[in-house]
Amino acid sequence: MRVSRIQAAENRETVINVASRLFRERGFDGIGLKDLMKGAGLTQGAFYKQFASKEDLAAQASRRAMESATHRWSDATAANPENPLEAVISFYLSMDHRGERMDGCPVVALGSDAARQGAEVKASFEAGIKEYLEMLASWVGKADGEETGGKAMAILSTMVGAVLLSRVVNDPDLAQAFLDAASDRVREAVAA
User: Fold this and answer.
1) 166 in a domain, yes or no?
2) How far is it, in rounded angstroms, from Cα 67 to Cα 174?
3) Could you give the CA distance from residue 148 to residue 142 in angstroms, rounded to a whole number?
4) Rounded Cα distance, 155 and 192, in Å
5) Pairing with 103, which of 25, 91, 132, 189 sits 20 to 30 Å away (CA)?
6) pTM for the whole thing?
7) Does residue 73 sit within a domain?
8) Which residues contact 84 (CB under 8 A, 6 or more apart)?
9) Three-state secondary structure readout of 27-55
10) HSE toward the beta carbon, residue 25, CA cutoff 13 A
């Protein structure tokens, strides 16, 4: 049975959304096309009508994951417009975010995998990271003549590293300690 153009476009979006989540949970190489398409409710044959390759899908899914993460930052700031950075710190450096394997930050979930991917996947991450940095830079002031871009980079690096380290350890108290230490350091950096 032939699929309409509208249905084909909807199927493509479904596959990108599902891949965005499954790649964050399992890594780019942690799931095959058959299981990925099954997760989208489609057959493996449908994949080749929609994407040139798994790398093509990885780039599209990475872009979608970064867009989703940026929207989460925006949602957090909308809930606390008086202190948007505090809103992001509170949700990002939390045990809840630590546990969000499928919906959490793609930089944390896939950063080391993305570094081994092609230029298209890296470009998707780079665009999302630049958005993170723009948001952070708009919320932080200069410190001792330091440009806001450098401060934003330090804050983002601290936050990503803390969530990553918190996910690597089994001990929930140690995981919480990483998140708390990062929260304290980020707040100190902003106050400086």
Assistant:
1) yes
2) 30
3) 5
4) 12
5) 189
6) 0.89
7) yes
8) 76, 77, 135, 139
9) CCCCCCHHHHHHHCCCCHHHHHHHCCCHH
10) 12
Range of the domain at 161: 53-191
Could you tell me which residues come within 8 angstroms of residue 72 by beta carbon, excluding any fewer than 6 positions away? Answer: 91
Contact 41, 14 (CB under 8 A): yes
Q: Give the span between the Cα atoms of 168 and 174, in whole angstroms.
A: 10
- Tokens matching residue 119: 């230029």
Match 């304290």 to its residue by tokens: 184
pLDDT tens sequence across 71-104: 999 999 999 999 999 999 999 999 999 999 999 9
Q: Which of 179-190 are b and which e, b meaning 16 or more Cβ less than 10 Å from the residue's Cβ?
A: beebbeebeebb
The domain that contains 105 carries what CATH number? 1.10.357.10
